[in-house]
């Protein structure tokens, strides 16, 4: 990692390569990353039991670093180099030789909850894939990508909650895949600017929409039917994933349900704007986020 590269990231990412880091320093480092991305982590900070918060900070910091190395560098060749470096750091962590502060903190979590390397490694597989793959032919191809890019996060949460059974993992996968798909439908134009397009090509052909129309942001009834089709099968995944809430501890359940309901609310917004995500990116807004949160904490406000 060069000084020039580090300068591209927010100050709370910075560290001195090769410097020895204590566990307390590493924990403070991962907290800084998590709280630096407060818009993603506020709900987790409020609802999680205090004895688990640091472990969630550690896992979040790993995921955040991984994601940003893939998306924020701006050069696919350099991103691949950095992601492979990060994978080497992960392997060093599992060999009990952590070097980076994220891994010094994360090793404590890995040991406490006996977390296998697979979910961490699968995330890197997805981010590496993003550097070379910009189109998905079939829905099954897209689900395969989500299995690496989204589902490992839910499984990591389950490990931190003490759950390792297949049924909870299956339901978690449904929610995480639905959240990832929702993000794709929300960010069609944003992803296009990165030369990525996640709507399956077979679905575009089915409804008579061309890639060129998306590039030109040409909204049509045909495109609306594509998005309606994608939104409806994503809703089905959310409905399946909601069953996980009944299998979790009450304190953690609220957080998982909040993310699930938030995803479904975003799908409702897409529907309300006539499935036109080409002219306007749907966004929940600050009041929508607050109201959603209150509806889970104080049911009478929902």
Would you kindly provide a brief summary of this structure?
The protein is mainly alpha-helical.
Plain-language structure description:
The protein is an all-alpha fold and 302 residues long. The chain has two domains: 12-132, Farnesyl Diphosphate Synthase, CATH 1.10.600.10; 134-302, Farnesyl Diphosphate Synthase. It contains 16 helices and no strands. The protein has helices at residues 3-6, 23-36, 38-47, 50-71, 76-94, 101-113, 118-130, 139-149, 151-160, 166-186, 188-193, 201-206, 211-215, 221-241, 250-272, 285-297. Helix 2 (23-36) packs across helix 6. The longest helix has 23 residues, at 250-272. The chain is globular, with a radius of gyration of 20 Å.
Q: What would the keywords be for this entry?
A:
302 residues; globular; 2 domains; mainly alpha; 16 helices; disordered C terminus; Farnesyl Diphosphate Synthase
Radius of gyration over alpha carbons? Answer: 20 Å
User: At the fourth CATH level, what is the homologous superfamily of the largest domain?
Assistant: Farnesyl Diphosphate Synthase
What's the average pLDDT? 87
Provide the helix percentage. Answer: 55-70%
What is the CATH top level name of the largest domain? Mainly Alpha
* Largest sheet properties: none
Q: Structurally, how many domains make up the residues?
A: 2
Number of strands: 0
Strand composition percent? under 5%
User: Could you tell me how far the N terminus lies from the C terminus, measured between alpha carbons in angstroms?
Assistant: 47 Å
Number of DSSP helices?
A: 16
Sum up the overall morphology in one term: globular
Low-confidence stretches: 38-44, 296-302
Class per helix and strand makeup = mainly alpha
CATH third-level topology of the largest domain: Farnesyl Diphosphate Synthase
Order of helices and strands: HHHHHHHHHHHHHHHH
CATH architecture of the largest domain: Orthogonal Bundle
């Amino acid at each position: 990692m060069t000084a020039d590269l580090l300068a591209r990231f927010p100050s709370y990412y910075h560290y001195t390569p090769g410097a020895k880091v204590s566990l307390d320093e590493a924990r403070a480092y991962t907290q800084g990353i998590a709280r630096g991305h407060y818009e993603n982590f506020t709900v987790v900070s409020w609802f999680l039991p205090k004895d688990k918060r640091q472990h969630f900070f550690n896992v979040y910091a790993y995921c955040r670093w991984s994601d940003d190395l893939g998306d924020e560098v701006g050069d696919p060749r350099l991103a691949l180099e950095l992601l492979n470096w990060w994978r080497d750091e992960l392997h060093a962590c599992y060999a009990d030789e952590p070097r980076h502060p994220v891994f010094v903190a994360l090793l404590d979590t890995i040991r406490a909850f006996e977390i296998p390397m697979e979910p961490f490694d699968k995330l890197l597989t997805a981010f590496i894939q993003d550097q070379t793959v910009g189109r998905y032919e079939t829905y099954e191809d897209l689900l395969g990508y989500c299995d690496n890019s989204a589902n490992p996060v839910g499984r990591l949460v389950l490990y931190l909650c003490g759950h390792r059974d297949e049924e909870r993992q299956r339901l978690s996968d449904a929610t995480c895949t639905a959240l990832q798909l929702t993000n794709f439908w929300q960010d069609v134009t944003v992803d296009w600017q990165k030369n990525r397009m996640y709507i399956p090509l077979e679905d575009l052909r089915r409804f008579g929409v061309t890639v060129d129309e998306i590039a030109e942001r040409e909204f049509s009834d045909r495109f609306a039917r594509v998005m309606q089709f994608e939104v409806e099968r994503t809703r089905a995944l959310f409905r399946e994933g909601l069953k996980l809430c009944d299998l979790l501890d009450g304190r953690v359940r609220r957080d998982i349900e909040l993310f699930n309901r938030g995803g479904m609310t975003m799908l409702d917004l897409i529907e309300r704007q006539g499935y036109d995500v080409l002219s306007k990116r749907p966004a929940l807004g600050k009041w929508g986020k607050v109201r959603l949160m209150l509806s889970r904490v104080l049911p009478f406000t929902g």
